[in-house]
């Protein structure tokens, strides 16, 4: 094949690069997960909830928000636990080990609050959760 027969690649349309279909007004403006936390339609959280230093206070506030909310889809325990897990997962590696321990203790307190006031939680639990519940009941 001679040089003249080869196609001129400069005249061929190029494949769009990743993200090139967005207009300048649709630029990525931040973290979607932070927006979810601020504008979630699931629970109305107390301001500064995740800055509290007492796991029992965090659990009580989450329970209060979940119980009074009519916008949740699951049980109050599921909604409260989901919001707490979402926050822990969203923080990821930026969450200090001491803060993560505190939030994990808030999960235990949350389970205690729901078991204490409403009997057994209505969520399906696995064998790992049963061990935790037995440990909590023994205390």
Question: Roughly what is the average pLDDT, rounded to an integer?
Answer: 77
Would you count the extended β strands for me? 0
Secondary-structure content class: mainly alpha
Number of helices: 5
Unreliably modeled segments: none
| Order of SSEs | HHHHH
The gyration radius over C-alpha positions equals: 24 Å
Strand content bin: under 5%
Largest sheet: none
Helix content: 40-55%
Q: What does the overall shape look like?
A: globular
Q: Distance between the terminal alpha carbons, to the nearest Å?
A: 85 Å
Report on this model:
There is one protein chain. The chain is mainly alpha-helical and 139 residues long. It has helices at 32-39, 55-68, 76-91, 97-118, 127-138. The chain starts with 31 loop residues before the first helix and ends with a helix. The model has no long low-confidence stretch (mean pLDDT 77).
Spell out the key features of this protein.
mainly alpha, 139 residues, single chain, globular
Q: What would a concise description of this structure say?
A:
The protein has 139 residues and is mainly alpha-helical.
Task: List the SSEs and their pairings.
Layout: H1 32-39, H2 55-68, H3 76-91, H4 97-118, H5 127-138
Helix pairs in contact: 2-3, 2-4, 3-4
